[in-house]
From TrEMBL:
Pfam families: NIR_SIR, NIR_SIR_ferr. It comes from Paenibacillus validus. Residues 60-126, 313-375 form the Nitrite/Sulfite reductase ferredoxin-like domain. This is Nitrite/sulfite reductase. Residues 135-289, 393-517 form the Nitrite/sulphite reductase 4Fe-4S domain. Belongs to the nitrite and sulfite reductase 4Fe-4S domain family. InterPro entries: NIR_SIR_4Fe-4S, NiRdtase/SiRdtase_haem-b_fer, Nit/Sulf_reduc_fer-like_dom_sf, NO2/SO3_Rdtase_4Fe4S_dom, NO2/SO3_Rdtase_4Fe4S_sf, NO2/SO3_Rdtase_FeS/sirohaem_BS. The keyword Iron-sulfur applies. Transmembrane segments: none annotated. Keywords: 4Fe-4S, Heme, Iron, Iron-sulfur, Metal-binding, Oxidoreductase. It comes from the Bacteria. GO terms for molecular function: 4 iron, 4 sulfur cluster binding; heme binding; metal ion binding; oxidoreductase activity.
Amino acid sequence: MAYEAIWAADTSKLNKMELVKLEKDGLDVIRTIIEKYAHEGYSSITPDDMNLFKWAGVYEQKPKDGHFMMRVRVPSGIMTTAQARAMADIARDYGRNLVDVTTRQAIQFHWLTVEQLPDIFNRLEKVGLYSYEACGDCPRTIVGNPLAGIDKDELFDTTALVNEVNDFFLLNRDFSNLPRKYKMSISSNIYNSGHAEIQCLAFTPASKVIDGQEVLGFHAWVGGGLSAKPHLAKKLDLFVRPEEVLKVAIGVTTIFRDYGYREKRHHARLKFLVADWGPEKFKEKLVEVIGEMPSLGEDRVVGWTAAYFDGVHKQKQEGLNYIGLSVPVGRLSGDELSELAEIADTYGDGHIRTTVSQNIIISGVKDENVDKALAAKVLERLTPNPKHFMSRTVSCTGNEFCNLAVVETKERARAVAEYLDKNVELDEEVRIHFIGCPNACGQKHIADIGLQGALVKTPEGMVDAFDLSVGGILGPGAKFNETLKGRVKGDQVGPVLEQLILFFKENRGPEESFHQF
Ligand code: SF4
């Protein structure tokens, strides 16, 4: 029995969104936008269809006055300069010249209207890009190693694999009605550039001796995720050859689709099913779906660099370099993106790469062209040599545009980083993440210092404030940060973090870094 039939048999326990999805597949809204709403306008959109706009990669922006936010999938964060230029043009023509790099390596626009969406979908498709299923209860942008193919620290190039899995799931109606959002990462970088432990399904580099030969492949992790109840993913007792990644991805996604919880929306992520079943039962079910697989091999992840690449670095190809640029709190202009495309075409290999740390990399720069590339004016702001705190500050969208936000985050995060760079000298970077609500798009749980927006009552009324957590890390020894007592008012965040970091500086042991403190 197909999963719709299972749920349609007894709809009494389904949450409201499930009933909407049983009436209309989320992907159908794309056609409705193009054929109806783009002509009839914002006021003609029904509430149910507005909920399904996510499948087109589109959300209503705050305040709800007819403007939209759009997210565009960039698998593994790797795009061509033609794609970057198309997105820069969309931002300039329709999105008030604003481009955000997200913590899933995607690109986000704001200020769009429903009338503009068909042209934007068209422009994206012409260069092989899609906003479709960048949001919604479906497989989202596949996160990966932005350095795939050029990385000295990868076991092998994962570009084709990511594209294969992306192409299989994109617009695939067998998997367009999952219980909730579904996040995958595929990376063979030994420093965990795909943030494996916080994904619904992640593939990390591994090796195994099979028939006397060392085979390079992956380990598979399931059930990670953040939000109000964060879970670290669990490793399955499997060794996955590269050619079996798609099969495993289909198997895990099938289990989530057919057995994932659909009663309470906040309880519908894969992490809750994995927590209830445990990795052993999950593996048994997976083997039923896809057949026997070899057991675990040797983990090849040796640490975690939090996907930071700033500076000039040698590629695995002799004579070539990549330049990691800092994009303060992940925000740049369409003009800047277009200038980066110019640098990538003139001095690089025609690619621009986005990172889960909300930054950008230009690749394929010959030794003799590095200085010329570095001299570009746009790199004065998007610098490869950023100040410590600005370089490691991540922020979600916050209440500037997000309807779920409790507080403003992006501009505040930028101002706090600037304050710390001015007032605190430290010989190491401290990763600071801001989120505007418990949904945790800015991944505060994995930060050295995580700040989650909240409100506090003062004599003057309710004001923006933040809960502070410290000590998050991924890779071997992964753990989420722990929340400290008390709440800090928004205008006090800079001085309070200054005191916290100075306390660390004065009391740390020899060679002790912030996350070990
Ligand atoms: Fe919006 Fe909350 Fe996500 Fe921030 S964390 S972008 S406030 S949903």
